[in-house]
Design goal:
Chain lengths: 324, 533
């Protein structure tokens, strides 16, 4: 039986030489992502904005203009409508109700439901959720805190297990993945809610996983080939791990695509974020984090426990900073 | 590395079999297991899958503080009069979270301080800090300020009690399996699966249900009342159903009966008019007090007050000595029933506000489960096929590991009484992807070692050995992000993190140890000269 090989054996792509190009592209995309995020803003869900979200399922595809007219006539604030999943599911977003107590919110939910049921017979209630402004602020804080802590914790782990350059390059690559994801959400205006924070953290976890595998191989090769130039070592390591990198990404993408198309609309934003994150994370593992090691001046150094032949102490000392 | 003693093989199979069998109850519908009369641990469906309501209740800590100052005010007044010599108090006021009062006779300052020390408690909690700060200003004015420590303890106590009351009220509604958890210093999370109408639940939780009987001050001047002026020792309360037209009434501050003297409350129908009413039974102390007061005040009205609103103010036609009373006042059956439940379960020591709420309809939940299961099945099928065409026999072993892993995760979740949420399903699918990663690492490594010209056994040995280290490193970092999600996350994020963490642990075991055992067994039996990988 002939087995499938996605990546041929002994690839020898000079990733390091493409570094400049990759950095340029990365920088450009990151700037674009930040720009879009600031310019268009994120479409925060009720979790982070506070307010009220009602999802209704209509008997047939409704005319959004009519739905809006019905909801706006109720005096519950300006409604933002969004088809969700198929065209018959509509989510209605309303601002935090005046009065701020549960009574006002309930009245609003009931008003909207009654009015829609009258105007569009056969409308079913699907779900609603309300979050007060205070809680949404906390949720934002916790979400941001979780992401920052995850990045720091993992960076520290990489620093302790490897060299500091590994930690720094990993963090830079992760931040890049993060920016891309934010840019994507700003561009598509998909709703950004708590589930997306979970997706972002997962992307971070996965992306790290990818980088650790490559870093691990670089470290191994540094010990194995003492005399080799750093750029060669990195090229070799990335090429050696390429089959695994591609295989794993393809496998996870297969699983994610199943979720994206069959997992129902509630998970759609989450899965879209994950899918993008896997692609971006794979790219940044191959280019950003490994090539950055050279810029950060990582160089092969003899292992401490083995006797070193020749050379003075100074030669064996760790060198940081750009190489002359 | 590749020699597995028999006990080890048996142990691994047993462990996996045990964990997999733990997942079985989850697949049997609940109606069936209940019919058999066994209660096996199973994975519960989260609200987003089962449909139901989630509420986050928050207590107003200022409210606790204010209540506490009011209570202290009453205590001070009784204490100063209780013993001889009586200590006369001039004006007393509770403003700005402090209590201050003036002594008529400045020479009694020391005696008053003595008595205050007794009632303000010597210490709060384990720290031995005082609960109140006592200061004397201008020789005869006392100022009592609650200490932060004392307040913290009071909030803690109030929240503990409030959680109990909330639990009692929800149990009274007869919903199935509500979850009620305290969160942080002043919040309570309530989750009720399968609830179709969250409205009743919220109305019930929104009631403080502070019940008081107070005498009506019939001498109060209606004109002054309308302006909000009341005689000394009175308070003015809203009275929406007042037959005299003014929606206000003046009552004596002193309560005859409070809600804690009730032993029971039920919704019934009034015999003559058949209108719904709430009838109450007092405990012995309440019964005695009520009997005495009604004897002394025949012919006068008294006010029945719930949450500082007068519901009715009936006249006392004759002494009521049976220890029972009833409230009528424009109830419907539902509202009477709710009030009865609220009174029965005791008053909330603190007002609770709903700061976050979500309700998922049952259809959406059912749709989500269907979609989630379909997606998971397709994902597994795709991954399995892909592994098979890529790694042949080794792919088959990896697939066995992945499929077993799915059931092991469910088994562990059932054991921990975990809840599966929609993001949890996503975490599940993702775990399938990452579980394969370990095998990809191992198999790629074996490929490489064969490529370098090592023999079969050496290649497999080295492949497992080298890859294991990498797998460990990668999974530790992955677990770090999982733990952070679990600690900081709420709701969906937490549900996702649980599945992720369990998945990381089980997939490392199944992908590394379990497949190594399978490969070792095959190598021993078949002794292949070459492997197709």
């Amino acid at each position: 039986m002939k087995l499938l090989k996605l990546v041929p054996d002994d690839t020898n792509i000079d990733f390091v030489r493409l570094r400049g190009l990759a950095f340029g592209l990365t920088l450009l995309l990151s700037v674009l992502a930040v720009g879009i995020t600031f310019y268009k803003g994120l479409n925060f869900g009720v979790d982070f904005e506070g307010g009220l979200m009602i999802e209704e399922r209509f008997a047939q595809e409704p005319d959004l203009g009519r739905v809006r007219a019905v909801v706006d006539s109720l005096g519950v604030g300006e409604a933002a409508l969004q088809p969700f999943g198929d065209k018959r599911n509509i989510t209605i977003r309303l601002p935090v109700q005046q009065g701020g107590d549960e009574g006002a919110t309930n009245t609003a939910v009931r008003k909207v439901e009654a009015a829609l049921a009258k105007a569009f017979p056969g409308t079913e209630f699907r779900r609603y959720s309300t979050v007060s402004g205070k809680v949404s602020g906390e949720l934002i804080r916790n979400g941001v805190l979780a992401v920052v802590l995850a990045i720091l914790g993992i960076g520290l782990f990489a620093i302790f297990r490897f060299e500091w350059q590994f930690g720094v390059s990993t963090i830079v690559a992760i931040v890049h993945d993060l920016l891309m994801t934010l840019g994507f959400f700003a561009l598509t205006q998909f709703e950004f809610d708590l589930n997306i924070v979970a997706a972002v953290l997962t992307i971070i976890g996965y992306s790290i996983n990818d980088k650790i595998v490559i870093d691990d191989r670089i470290r191994e090769n540094m010990r194995r080939y003492r005399k080799m130039e750093m750029r060669e070592i990195i090229n070799l390591s990335v090429n050696e791990t390429l089959p695994r990198t591609v295989m794993t990404s393809v496998t996870i993408l297969l699983a994610l695509l199943a979720l994206l198309f069959l997992g129902g609309h509630v998970l759609r934003g989450f899965t879209a974020a994950m899918t993008l994150g896997i692609i971006v994370g794979t790219y940044s593992s191959i280019y950003v984090s490994s090539s950055l090691l050279i810029s950060l001046g990582l160089r092969a150094q003899p292992e401490n426990e083995k006797p070193v032949r020749g050379g003075s102490v100074a030669d064996n000392a760790e060198r940081v900073g750009p190489r002359a | 590395m590749l020699d597995f003693p028999r006990w080890k093989v048996a142990g691994i199979w047993l462990l996996l079999a045990a964990l997999v069998s733990l997942s079985i109850p989850t697949f049997i519908p609940e109606s069936v297991t209940q019919a058999w009369g066994i209660n096996l641990p199973r994975v519960n469906k989260g609200l987003d899958l089962a449909g139901g309501s989630y509420l986050l209740l928050e207590a107003d800590t200022n409210d606790v503080a204010a209540t506490r100052v009011e209570a202290m005010r009453e205590q001070v007044q009784t204490e100063m009069r209780r013993q001889n010599p009586r200590i006369e108090i001039g004006e007393i006021s509770s403003r700005g979270g402090q209590l201050s009062f003036l002594l008529r006779d400045p020479t009694q300052v020391d005696a008053a301080r003595e008595r205050l020390l007794q009632i303000t408690g010597t210490g709060a909690g384990m720290t031995g800090q005082r609960q109140w700060d006592i200061q004397v200003v201008d020789t005869s004015r006392f100022v009592l300020t609650p200490t932060a420590e004392g307040l913290k303890q009071a909030v803690e106590t109030a929240m503990g009690d409030a959680t109990e009351v909330v639990r009692r009220r929800i149990d009274e509604m007869g919903t199935r399996e509500p979850t009620i958890i305290r969160q942080g210093s002043n919040r309570i999370v309530v989750q009720v699966p399968g609830l179709q109408d969250p409205q009743a639940l919220k109305d019930l939780l929104g009631k403080t249900a502070k019940l008081e009987f107070k005498l009506v001050d019939v001498n109060a001047d209606p004109q002054a009342l309308a302006k909000g002026q009341a005689p000394a020792g009175d308070q003015i309360l809203p009275y929406p159903n007042n037959p005299s037209g003014i929606p206000l009434i003046a009552v004596k501050r002193q309560a005859i009966i409070t809600g804690d003297m009730l032993s029971d409350a039920r919704q019934e129908f009034e015999p003559q008019t058949n209108a719904p009413q709430v009838s109450m039974t007092f405990d012995s102390q309440g019964g005695r007090r009520f009997a005495r007061t009604t004897q002394e005040n025949v012919g006068k009205p008294f006010a029945i007050i719930v949450d500082n609103t007068v519901i009715s103010a009936p006249n006392i036609n004759e002494p009521i000595i049976g220890g029972r009373a009833s409230i009528n006042g424009g109830f419907t059956v539902e509202s009477a029933n709710q009030l009865a439940i609220a009174l029965r379960s005791g008053k909330l020591p603190v007002d609770l506000k709903i700061v976050e709420e979500s309700t998922v309809g049952p259809d959406l939940g059912a749709d989500s489960i269907r979609a989630g299961i379909l997606a998971s099945a397709v994902a597994v099928a795709l991954v399995v096929a892909f592994m098979l065409v890529t790694y042949g026999r080794f792919g088959l072993y990896a697939n066995l590991a992945v499929v077993i892993n799915v059931f092991v995760i469910l088994g562990v979740m059932a054991l921990l009484k975990g809840t599966l949420t929609l993001p949890g399903i996503a975490g599940f699918v993702l775990t399938i992807g990452t579980a394969v990663d370990a095998n990809v690492l191992i198999n790629e490594r074996i490929r490489e070692e064969r490529h370098r010209g090592r023999n079969v056994v050496q290649a497999v040995e080295l492949g497992y050995k080298e890859a294991s280290r990498t797998i460990f490193e990668a999974n530790v970092t992955h677990a770090i992000s999982g733990i952070i999600m679990f600690v900081l996350g709420s709701g969906p994020v937490k549900g996702f993190a649980v599945v992720l963490l369990i998945g990381i642990a089980t997939s490392v075991f199944t992908a590394v140890t379990f497949t190594r055992m399978l490969v070792a067994g095959w190598l021993r039996r078949a002794k292949p000269k070459t492997i197709n990988i």
